[in-house]
Amino acid sequence: MATDWTKTSFHRLKDKSPSDAPMQWKMARDALGTRELGVSRFTYEPAARMPFGHRHREQEEVYVVVGGAGHAKLDDEIVELATWDVLRVSPHVWRSFAAGPEGLDLLCVGGRRPAGGDTERAPGFWAD
């Protein structure tokens, strides 16, 4: 019998981060079987940065800082982040994250993923 709910744990999900990145990326969309939204957890080691920037054609995203602190780079603006901050980012805005000295733990909630995806990446987004 099919149910109208699904449960998983981020502890059970496979890390999808680049092999040389000092962070973990765990995406729950497939494990939950969601059609309308995705939920991901990004756990950064102290002083780690996402190795690229990204934006979307259609997906709006909301990020919730559940631990630690750091910064978001939104286009050319740097925004400080602290535990329990909630940040909404429009699809067209380039974004990337960097952890502070105690690390950064983010939950990301995004909308429906278009067929074939809608993510564009920019290597070297944090170029100093």
Automatic annotation (TrEMBL):
Domain annotation Cupin type-2: ranges: 41-109
Keyword Metal-binding: yes
Keywords: Metal-binding
Region feature (Disordered): 1-21
InterPro entries documented for this protein: Cupin_2, GPI/OXD, RmlC-like_jellyroll, RmlC_Cupin_sf
PANTHER family given in the database record: OXALATE-BINDING PROTEIN
Protein name: Cupin domain-containing protein
Organism of provenance: Solirubrobacter deserti
Highest classification ranks of the organism: Bacteria, Bacillati, Actinomycetota, Thermoleophilia, Solirubrobacterales
